[in-house]
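Notes from the 1:1 (GR / supervisor)

We went over the backlog. Supervisor wanted to see one worked example end to end before approving the batch request, so GR pasted a single chain during the call. The sequence is below; no edits were made to it. Supervisor asked that the structure be written out right there so they could see what the output format looks like.
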Amino acid sequence: MNHPRPLGVFLVTVIGLTWATQLTFLLNGADLTPALLAELVFLLGGATAITAYTQGRAGVRRLYAGITRWRLGAGRYAVLLAAMPALTLLVAALTGTLRQPDGGWLKLVTTYLFMTLIFGVLLGNLWEETAWSGFVQSRLMARHGLLAGSLRTAVPFLLIHLPLIFAADGWAHTTWRAAGLDLALLTLAAPFLRYLIGTLLVDTGGSILAVALLHASFNAAGSMAAVSGGWQYIPAMIILTLLVVAHRARRGNAASDHRQTADPASPRIPA
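Structure output shown during the call:
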């Protein structure tokens, strides 16, 4: 099925439901956790339902296949787990915002691994990225190539996260200056993150597990106790993206990234 309407239906429905749910919680000063869990249900449920309707059981199996693509190599796993925290700490050191973490460095490492491997991957990012990478981005990349498909994915990805700029201090206590700064950081981060994820999809043959690890590592690096302000993970992720671009260019991967697949509704990630 070549018609892009299923993607449009998915994005409008999921973003609309997510905004309605999260803004209701924010306006009432309630804990946002149930709304964040509801977002995962909207994303995964919507992607699964539309895939089942348009492609049947075979399409659903393809949608979930990336979760079990785990043979990535020890080197890639090391990069997925260590690159973001290492670069975040480096940015903090260079900007004078690195500090001794409460409880020491061992506690920081243990907390980071728990937040990444348990809380991040298993409880959130694996299912979030099944929808964003497996359903949305893989199709847009199949139609438009790595760069254009990733940038197109960044737009709805940014939109669905807009209510979160009020999450830290609540709707009533978030100043417009703070909201504007968070919005600027989110707008800056989204295209780089989706492009970085796109390169990972291409280079791993569509491993959602790899993408979930990267996304969880990105989130966990931003909350490390050794950095002040919580912004250092954004330039760290941009640096990582540029390093990946340079590495792929040296290997010659970029030459094939513009290719489109013959059937965008049943995407195969360009090699």
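Supervisor's comment: The two ends are 22 Å apart (CA to CA).
Batch request approved.
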